[in-house]
Specification:
262 residues, Glycerol-3-phosphate (1)-acyltransferase, 47% helix
């Protein structure tokens, strides 16, 4: 049954993507003269992505703290990364932001093309030049008044546990003058683990918008300290069962960085 359900889900995703991408092109063409931030197109993209959780009875998605997202505020949004589904369910916030995403996603027919229309930011992982370009592009996005959405873990967790955070998002927040908005995703790792495309039955999925961290709290601090503080906020919110392995990973990364400096 899981295999049949998965085939139906991915077939629905492919079919709707083919049908909805032309609609996205029309919205882009009609609104680009007066909507430089592409808010209308992004809201349509939120609707498009939300279809896959709205129409899947196996996923009960609950959003908490949406009211904490201040209208008109520009954030560096950071979320933990458990599954491919994280991207779909984070669109359920219906908040305005630009994704930072690996370049491979932009090559997906229809979905990737729509990402380019939206002006989302590309990243080639492991490429220092691409990382520098991503940081510069993200800074321009923030300067234009658009929030950025990033996964500071860099990639999906293989077991749902919190991985060590990279510094990029927090460097952006310090340089841009924007607050950090932590967003916690729970349950997606059980619904669709990192390895494989077979959906794993019924699961409750929760998105929690946590309290923003004002830019004033970031000033004059080493980015490593800010990164560690935000990681701890996520670790505390996730609970002790997911902290031990993540803490070990974080310490390992910190030790490698220390040795590289020596």
């Amino acid at each position: 049954m899981r295999l049949i359900g998965s085939v139906l889900f991915w077939a629905f995703l492919v079919t709707t993507s083919v049908l909805l991408f032309p609609v996205a092109v029309v919205i882009w063409g009609l609104t680009v003269p007066f909507d430089p931030k592409k808010r209308w197109l992004h809201q349509f993209t939120c609707f498009w992505a939300s279809l896959y959780s709205w129409f899947n009875p196996a996923w009960r998605v609950h959003v908490e703290g949406r009211e904490k997202i201040r209208r008109g505020a520009t954030y560096v949004m950071v979320a933990n990364h458990q599954s491919l589904l994280d991207i779909l369910v984070l669109f359920r916030l219906f908040a305005h932001f630009k994704w930072v995403s690996k370049i491979e996603n932009f090559r997906i027919p229809c979905i990737g093309w729509n990402m380019r229309l939206n002006g989302y930011v590309e990243l080639r992982r492991g490429d220092k030049h691409s990382i520098a370009e991503m940081m510069a592009a993200s800074a321009r996005v923030l300067d234009a008044g658009n929030s950025i959405m990033m996964f500071p873990e860099g990639t999906r967790s293989p077991d749902g546990r919190l991985r060590a955070f990279k510094h990029g998002a927090f460097t952006l927040a310090q340089r841009s003058g924007c607050p950090i908005l932590p967003i916690l995703v729970e349950g997606t790792a059980n619904a669709l683990p990192k390895r494989g495309l077979v959906l794993q039955g019924r699961h409750a999925i929760r998105i929690r918008v946590l309290d923003e961290i004002p830019h004033e709290k970031l000033l004059g601090r080493p980015v490593e300290d800010v990164t560690r503080e935000v990681w701890q906020i996520f670790a505390t919110a996730l609970g002790p069962e997911r902290v031990e392995a993540a803490e070990h990973a974080r310490r390992a990364v910190h030790e490698r960085a220390r040795r590289a400096v020596q």
